[in-house]
Design a protein that fits this description.
- This protein has 3 domains: about 140 residues, no CATH class; about 130 residues, no CATH class; about 170 residues, no CATH class.
- It is about 50% helix and about 15% strand.
- The chain is built from 16 helices and 17 strands.
- The strands form 4 sheets. A 6-stranded mixed sheet has the order 11-12-6-15-16-17, with no helix packed on it.
- The termini are far apart.
- About 5% of the residues have low confidence.
Length: about 525
């Protein structure tokens, strides 16, 4: 059992075991000793510690404690203090050239040489060309619109070269001790050179000479204008980037919360409490798979992309946010692909459940012979008092008189034909869809429909029902009335919405207009109106 110590490197807290801490402390002491008396040594040490923190973060990932092996890896990566000399010899081309084989180049935004966001400078370093050429390409293609979008995307996703180690990697130089020291010393020398080259008297003289001429004044104004314009554009793009980050976070968060609430509504409430929420009934009566499983798959398929968008928005707004580990990224990708493939499978299976349409053998019943047959639609006092919870494909969910859930529909149609016989006949056909003939036939046979003949009046129910386990699969009921020639039929006014489009009549009435009239069946299978004005 090893003792662990908490340390702070570049603002990041690490847990490190005691043996590893002693070795790291000795290493840093050796580096500080080697840099003693060097100009900017404090900045060099700070950059070296930042590089060590970065390498620790990349190496330990899911581990919680830094071990001696991790410290050995860092030392091998950065090099020993004795491997270089702390003098100007580290700037020799020969020294840097000897380590070209270890150079790795990464794409960063160079904010030290930027006009807007440093994207072009970073691409130039990565490709090994002057950033001016990259800027010219963006300007030439500017009016195409795409470079603007591409620049914004690169500005968002390409990280800024903030640390000395990142600036070295941007130029393809190894981020070891010698190069970090050289880079920091170069920065100090550049600042010192600018200060030494600044001649106040000479500058004042040039300003006076420039101001004394009209051309100089114009040049100064134009230069100031473009300088202001550049800063303004930079500010606008920076604000736009932050705004995009805020929008991504807000929209993604709203979507994630919405699908979470939907998941609770569609699944847990129904499973645990038997809630009568309409969307749950809709899903249960239409989909053959469990509602909770479909809900989880939808959450993964929709929620994971929006979660990644929210994470992207957070990265735009918060620069030092902890990067997502590779294991988490691969897990999310795997879960997303699995949910997509599962939903595709469910969709294909759902389509297959309606691949065939079957009508059962019609129920045929002969009625007593009458001179005049009155047809009326009969409603149900019970179902008239119960409001349907939803409506899809002319069907809805309701309750029977025992309070049990059932499928309910008023999609009834009746047609009138010549029977070529002595007595009227009623044929009731029930139809449904299924995965195969047997499933469709079983579903059609479960449809419950009734009618009644009282004296010379035929009462047809204006509804039919089916059990919920039948699911909604295009169930229909069709009634065919076969009347002998010269039989008179009166269609009550409440039959207007249930008369078939195929009923032929000598007045060319639309089906609804045939209601509340007397009709006689002719020999040519056509109804002739007896009380219509010619």
């Amino acid at each position: 059992m090893n003792k662990t110590i908490n340390i702070n490197l570049a603002g990041i807290v690490f847990h490190i075991d005691e043996e590893a801490f002693d070795k790291l402390q000795s290493y840093l002491d050796a580096v500080k000793k080697s840099l003693k008396g060097t100009e900017g040594n404090e900045e060099i040490i700070a950059d070296i510690e930042a590089r060590i923190a970065e390498l620790f973060s990349e190496r330990i990932k899911e581990k919680e404690v830094v071990t001696k092996d991790d410290v050995d890896y860092i030392i091998a990566k950065l090099g020993q203090p004795d491997d270089y000399q702390v003098d100007d010899s580290i700037f020799d081309e020969e020294t840097t050239g000897s380590k070209k084989s270890n150079k790795t180049k990464r794409l960063y935004r160079d904010t030290d040489d930027k006009i807007i966001g440093g994207v072009c400078s970073g691409i130039g370093h990565y490709l090994g060309i002057d950033p001016v050429w990259v800027r010219l390409i963006f300007i030439v293609l500017f009016f195409g619109g795409f470079p603007i979008i591409a620049y914004l995307i690169l500005w968002i996703i390409v990280p800024e070269a903030a640390t000395t180690a990142q600036k070295l990697e941007m130029k393809g130089e190894a981020a070891n001790l010698s190069n970090i020291e050289r880079k920091v010393k170069e920065g100090f020398e550049n600042v010192k050179k600018k200060v030494d080259d600044f001649d106040l008297d000479e500058t004042g003289k040039k300003v006076k000479e420039t101001g004394s001429s009209f051309f100089g004044m114009i040049t100064s104004i134009v230069g100031s204008f473009f300088s202001f314009l550049g800063k303004l554009i930079t500010g606008i793009f920076a604000f736009a980037g932050k705004l995009i980050g805020v929008i991504l976070i807000l929209v993604s968060f709203a979507v994630i919360i919405s699908i979470f609430i939907t998941f609770i509504t569609f699944s847990f409430i129904d499973v645990n409490f038997g809630s009568d929420i309409a969307p749950i009934f809709l899903a249960e009566s239409f989909v053959d798979f469990p509602v909770w499983l479909s809900s989880i798959l939808l959450i993964l398929a929709i929620g994971i992309p929006f979660f990644m968008l929210m994470y992207l928005g957070l990265k735009i707004l918060i620069k030092n946010i902890k990067p997502m580990s590779g294991v988490v990224k691969l897990s999310l990708l795997g879960a997303w692909l699995l949910s997509i493939f599962a939903l595709i499978f469910i969709s294909i299976n759902q389509v297959a459940t309606e691949s065939i349409r079957v009508s059962e053998n019609p129920k045929i019943e002969q009625l007593q012979a009458v001179d005049t047959l009155y047809v009326k639609m009969r409603t149900s006092k019970h179902y008239d008092r119960v409001d349907p919870l939803f409506n899809i494909d002319h069907m809805s969910m309701s309750y029977d008189q025992d309070g049990e859930q059932i499928l309910f529909s008023r999609h009834i149609r009746f047609d009138v034909h010549n029977s070529n016989g002595a007595n009227p006949t009623v044929e009731v056909s029930r139809t449904a869809k299924g995965r195969n003939y047997k499933k469709a036939l079983e579903r059609a046979q479960k449809i419950a429909y009734d009618y009644e003949l009282t004296s010379n009046t035929l009462y047809l129910n204006n509804y039919f029902t089916a059990p919920t386990d039948s699911k909604i699969k295009a169930q229909e009921v069709e009634i065919d009335l076969y009347l002998p020639e010269n039989t008179v039929i009166q269609l009550d006014s409440n039959t207007a919405n249930y008369i078939s489009h195929q009923v032929d009549n000598n007045m060319d009435f639309y089906r609804k207009d045939m209601a509340d009239h007397l009709w006689k069946m002719s020999s040519n299978n056509q109804l002739e109106c007896l009380d219509c004005e010619q």
